[in-house]
């Protein structure tokens, strides 16, 4: 959990002038500093709901390097020849540390619930859209509805959100730095970022990105546990559907995403891994997609995939273009292993448009760095 305070955080040792942004990831800033400069390790930092306050408490305890009195010392042997190095650990098993963590959690939870209640009652939000010039007004539901209906972007269920305006501004800042909201990759400019998000279907949030955890009420549900921890636990009180035996959908399911599936170019088989799908098509349909796409730009690969899907849908062989009166899978077996296709066959702009809605296979194609891109007008929002 990350502190809501956006000021500079100070080092755990009071006489150290190292500063870090409390809005940044501790694993990228303060934790490496403590380990390398002071040989201090903090256990289970994910159970700390306000890192700045937590450090403030312990800073008074270990001021001027008074470490042995409050931190557990551990001798670490790097190898058999060198002398052991002494490291210090803030152990969340100690009663004092556990007490301060839980106190911070309770106070944070009170603040979060109060903020969520304010947002539930607020009907006059005014915030700029992430993807278009429109200023969004109304309540959280109105804002979420616009993002989803107009831009196919979801923050999750509005009732699961907290500090919504701050959340949206954080996402806006990432995009202003040309950072992808899903994979965190940084691009040379905003236009390239938008094109990347469109091609890779990254116009969404990554559930594994913990920097967004503070904006979801589910992460405050139980002390020291995020939605992912709760989801992985085996709860004896889980209720299953008496008819199907399937577990009832969990309340945090609007945030968790299952692995997307892709459909075979020829048959109805679906897989979640592209490598498995390519093996299937090569062994069952004589289509060597790796070889066919080896020297193609991203957009030529898109055209190729859509071309094959369009012709298969018309019961026509994508290689000889013959109309198949029998199952097309059987017809493809009459061909040798297909490693190439004439560019003239699929060199048509209409094949830039997906033949299959939400075709995840298009997101798995190789992205050619430095490739000139042509933005399709209807995809710009």
What does this structure look like?
This protein has 381 residues and is mainly alpha-helical. Helices cover 34% and strands 8% of the residues. The chain has helices at residues 30-38, 51-61, 95-121, 140-151, 164-176, 190-199, 227-232, 274-285, 289-293, 298-313, 328-332, 343-346; strands at 8-10, 19-21, 40-42, 72-76, 85-90, 125-128, 135-138, 262-263, 270-271. The chain has a three-stranded mixed sheet with strand order 3-5-4. A two-stranded antiparallel ribbon has the order 1-2. Strands 6-7 form a two-stranded antiparallel ribbon. A hairpin with an 8-residue loop joins strand 1 and strand 2 (19-21). The longest helix has 27 residues, at 95-121. The protein is elongated and about 80 Å long. The model is unreliable at 1-7, 239-244, 246-257 and 370-381 (pLDDT under 50).
Number of helices: 12
In one word, what is the shape? elongated
Largest sheet: 3 strands, mixed
- Roughly how many Å apart are the termini? 33 Å
Strand percentage lies at: 5-15%
Q: What share of the residues lie within helices? A: 25-40%
- Number of DSSP-assigned strands: 9
Rg calc: 27 Å
Contiguous runs where pLDDT drops below 50 for at least 5 residues: 1-7, 239-244, 246-257, 370-381
SSE-based structural type: mainly alpha
**Spatial arrangement of strands, main beta sheet:** 3-5-4
One letter per element, helices H and strands E, the order comes to EEHEHEEHEEHHHHEEHHHHH
- Average pLDDT score: 79
What are the main properties of this structure?
about 375 residues; mainly alpha; 9 strands
